[in-house]
Amino acid sequence: MDIVLQWLLLTVAVAAGWFVGRMGSTRERSKTPISDEESVKDRLQFLFTNYSDQAVENFVQSLAVNKDTVGLHLSIGAHFRHKGETDRAILIHQNLLARPELPTRFSQQVTYELAIDYLNAGLLDRAEALLHQLMGDREYGRKSSLQLIELYQQEKEWGKAGQVARTLTTGEHDARMYKMLAYITCEQAEDALKHDDRWMAQKLAKEALEYDRSCVRATFIMMRLLIRQGSYRDAANQSLKIFDQNPEFGSEAVDRLMKLEREHGDVGRLVKKLGKFYETWPSTSLLLALVEAVERTSGRMAAIELLRRELEVRPSVRGLLRLVELAGYEKGMTTDEGRLVSRIGHLILANRPIYRCVNCGFSGQQLHWLCPSCKQWETVRPIQGVEAE
Questions:
Q1: What HAMAP family has UniProt attached to this entry (predicted)?
Q2: Tell me, what DSSP letter sits at residue 356?
């Protein structure tokens, strides 16, 4: 676009902005201008997305501020923010707040947009101050509180995050908010554990379970506390509670349980319990744990037979590798062949994600209680399937 045409379009835009402002004073005289006004706004929207940045900046400075043009100012600010030009978005929203002609009913909306600009720019102290200012607002209070919680989670200021979250649970039963509060409290319990403050860690874990009885992380924390105390049987019973809270985390529970029993208990005593759980919530981790328990009590051949039978119904790579380990060298398979099968199987699993967020699809090999992508609690879970659970 050459410079003459660009300035011609800018002139048209400025005239259109003046026309939008004039519409407010003539609305009483006719209903027709309403549709004309909306048409002008659409044209302006097109123009600012096609102008050079300097042309848009000049246009914004010349555009009047009133109830008819605030929306356009906000659209331009959002446009710059989405382009990653946060500094310009900040200037637009700061300019709006500083203009005495800004209608009062828009001040909270502009303040919220400016707070989001600050968040995107990494100016967290400024964002925090504005979001606190908005917490009591009827329209923007809840959104501002949620943004504050996310900010505090990012900064790992769990005490402050909990304080804000509790303001959102007053007088209403919001399951999602209580789950968030439970996991924030678990973070505080983890901090207490790092400092070996077992009394505080236990208090906070119990508090988390009061907020959300299905909070599996709080139960795992209770399990760790019992292990530190030497109460191994009670710790094992804690891990079994996970199947009632959320069986999707059963593989996590059984892995911890088997490690505990190998070190401090008797794997064989778990045969009946593991068998019952497997019938209700079958998974590869549960099957392998059950196979190990059966091998301890009834011998290798019984374990092999169980594993073969279940793999025909629920095939899995991990199950196959265990079968090769237990019985792969029988019926003509050489040691080298067995090692080759094992190597290929482990290569298949090596780079596969183990966990996936059921909310946004984020995946990885590490369990995150707070999804790094969508920032939701307890949505990252073990993947089910032939190459996973």
A1: LPS_assembly_LapB
A2: E
382 closest CA partner among 242, 262, 175, 269: 242
Which single residue is written with the structure tokens 């794997």?
267
16: pLDDT strictly greater than 90 = no
Torsion of the alpha carbons at 23, 7, 48 and 39, rounded to the nearest 10? 30
Known binding residue 215? Answer is no
CA 95 to chain centre: 34
pLDDT of residue 99: 82
- Whether the per-residue pLDDT at 352 is higher than 50: the answer is yes
**371 annotated binding-site participant:** yes
108-125 pLDDT, tens digit each: 999 999 999 999 999 999
Round to whole Å and give the CA distance between 364 and 352.
Answer: 8
13 half-sphere exposure, CB direction, 13 A CA radius: 26
Beta strands per DSSP E along the chain: 355-357, 363-364, 380-382
* Residue 176 near residue 195, CB atoms below 8 Å: no
Instruction: Determine contact, residues 9/52, Cβ cutoff 8 Å.
Output: no
- pLDDT tens for 39-94 read 544 555 565 556 565 665 666 666 667 777 777 778 878 878 888 888 888 988 88
**What whole-number distance in Å separates Cα of residue 122 and Cα of residue 327?**
58
| Burial tier of 29 (Cβ tally within 10 Å: 0-12, 13-18, 19+) | exposed
